[in-house]
Design goal:
Largest sheet: 7 strands, mixed
Radius of gyration: 18 Å
Distance between the termini: 36 Å
Shape: globular
Helix content: 25-40%
Structural class: alpha/beta
Strand content: 15-25%
Strand order of the largest sheet: 1-9-8-2-7-3-4
Order of helices and strands: HEHEHEHHEEEHEHEHEHH
Length: 267
C-alpha cells in the first residue's frame, strides 16, 4: 500500500489505518474489560465478499455501537469466532469499512471528526436537524456517497436514524437496497444504552453484559420486492417491528420509557 494511497473519499489509507489502530486500542476495554461483549454469529463475517455488503442494525448510542462493530468485524476477519480477545487483529484492519452517520453529528467536535475520517459516510438527515423536526429533500449526493462506499467495501447503517427504540425504519434504506443490490446482513445489539452515555463516549456503568447478534444475510428479491416489503423485512431482522413490543415485559418497557424521558435525544 502506497504511503499516500487514498480511498474514493480522499482519505489517506495509511493515516486511516493508524487511526483505527489507535482508536481500537483505546476502546478495546470498553467491550473486553469494563464491560463484556457477547458475540453471536461472527463466523458469517469471514464468508462475505469484499464489497457491496450492507450491515443494518438497531441503534443505541452515537458511536459505541459502530466502534464495537469495527472490533468484531476485524477480529472475525483475523480468524476469531465470536471473540475480540487479543487486539492483534487491529494491526491489519479492513480499510474499506464505512458507517453512515448524520453530518451534523460528525462535525460536532474534534473526536467526531477523527471518527469520521476513520470511516464515516456523512449525510444530511431529511427528518431532523439541530434537534428539530424538518422535512427536506434527499440529497442525491448523499445517495451517491453511500453507493460509492458500497462499491468500495462494506457499509454499516442504522436504518431507524435514531437511538430511540421502536422507531420506524427509514424508507431511504430500502431504496438504497433496491438500487445497489447489496448483501444485507442484519445485526441486533443490546446493552450499549445501559453501558454508555447517549454519545457512546463516556462509560456510564460497568459490569454490563453487551450483546451483538450477527444474523444470516436477508433473502431479498431486488426486482420484485416493494419498498414496503423490504422495510418490513428490516424491521423483523433487527427486531424493531411493532410486534416485538408484545413479547417484551411491561416492566422493561416502562423502564425504557423512563430512560428515554431523561435524555435529550438529538440523533
Amino acid at each position: 500500500m502506497g504511503l499516500f494511497k487514498q480511498n474514493p473519499f480522499g482519505h489517506i489509507l495509511f493515516l486511516k489505518k493508524w487511526l483505527i489502530r489507535i482508536l481500537g486500542a483505546m476502546t478495546h476495554r470498553r467491550f473486553k474489560g469494563f464491560n463484556q461483549l457477547q458475540i453471536e454469529g461472527s463466523e458469517i463475517i469471514k464468508n462475505l465478499p469484499d464489497t457491496n455488503v450492507l450491515f443494518v442494525s438497531n441503534h443505541q448510542t452515537y458511536f459505541a455501537d459502530v466502534v464495537s462493530m469495527f472490533h468484531v468485524f476485524n477480529a472475525s476477519l483475523s480468524g476469531r469466532v465470536d471473540s475480540i480477545k487479543n487486539i492483534g487483529y487491529l494491526w491489519n484492519p479492513k480499510l474499506n469499512l464505512y458507517f453512515v452517520a448524520a453530518k451534523e453529528t460528525m462535525q460536532s467536535g474534534l473526536l467526531p471528526k477523527i471518527l469520521a475520517y476513520a470511516g464515516s459516510v456523512s449525510i444530511e438527515r431529511t427528518w431532523r436537524a439541530e434537534g428539530k423536526d424538518v422535512n427536506r429533500q434527499v440529497k442525491m449526493s448523499d445517495v451517491s456517497s453511500i453507493a460509492t462506499a458500497l462499491n468500495d467495501g462494506w457499509v454499516i447503517t442504522f436504518p431507524q436514524g435514531t437511538t430511540r427504540p421502536w422507531k420506524p425504519i427509514r424508507r431511504g434504506t430500502a431504496h438504497i437496497i433496491k438500487r445497489n443490490k447489496p448483501i444485507v446482513v442484519p445485526i441486533v445489539i443490546d446493552g450499549f444504552r445501559r453501558s454508555f452515555d447517549r454519545k457512546g463516549l463516556r462509560i456510564k456503568k460497568r459490569g454490563i453484559l453487551q450483546s451483538m447478534e450477527i444474523k444470516a444475510p436477508l433473502e431479498i428479491d431486488y426486482e420484485n420486492d416493494s419498498v414496503d416489503a423490504i422495510v418490513e423485512k428490516l424491521e423483523f431482522a433487527i427486531e424493531q417491528h411493532p410486534s416485538f413490543l408484545k413479547v417484551i415485559p411491561q416492566a422493561e418497557l416502562q423502564k425504557e420509557e423512563e430512560l428515554n424521558e431523561t435524555r435529550n435525544w438529538r440523533y
